[in-house]
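Run log // design_07
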């Protein structure tokens, strides 16, 4: 854990991107969160939350979802109530994946893509995926418990070349 970590109780991850040109298939990006247990903090996810699901206890859910990027500003939003997660969870990793249904697309192919992580009005991370432009998916943030049990925020922008299903399985592995 880095020394620049910040404690967080409830966070929101917001995603934006421009719609594809009128004569091309829509770009579809998704926010994905994976949770890891204290017994296996870098093992298999306990559960995965994405556009069509929420956590079993309701602490992680999508409040806004877009399949095209159409709308104003951030068109997809995931809320994480970390302070309500059971003590059996050690980590939550959040990332973004690009659906590959209409052929290969990377972040460099998507105009105006960006992610914003906030706690209330406090901006924790803002990124436009420039450092992962050649990737099809990227982790953006890790929330991890410290020794006192409080949740800490760690920026973790790291690119992957995976479809959303494979990405969900590998995104929380140790770098």
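design_07 sequence
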């Amino acid at each position: 854990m880095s020394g620049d970590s910040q404690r967080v109780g409830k966070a929101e991850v917001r995603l934006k991107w421009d719609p594809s040109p009128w004569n091309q298939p829509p770009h579809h990006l998704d926010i994905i969160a994976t949770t890891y247990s204290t017994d296996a903090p870098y093992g298999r996810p306990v559960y995965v939350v994405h556009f069509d699901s929420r956590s079993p206890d309701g602490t992680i859910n999508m409040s806004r979802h877009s399949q095209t990027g159409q709308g104003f500003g951030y068109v997809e939003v995931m809320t994480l109530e970390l302070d309500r997660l059971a003590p059996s969870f050690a980590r939550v990793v959040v990332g973004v994946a690009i659906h590959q249904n209409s052929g290969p697309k990377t972040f460099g192919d998507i105009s105006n893509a960006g992610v914003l992580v906030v706690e209330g009005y406090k901006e924790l991370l803002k990124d436009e995926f420039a450092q992962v432009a050649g990737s099809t998916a990227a982790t953006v943030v890790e929330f991890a418990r410290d020794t006192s049990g409080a949740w800490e925020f760690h920026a973790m922008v790291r690119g992957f070349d995976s479809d959303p299903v494979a990405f969900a399985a590998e995104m929380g592995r140790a770098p």
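The chain has one helix and eleven strands.
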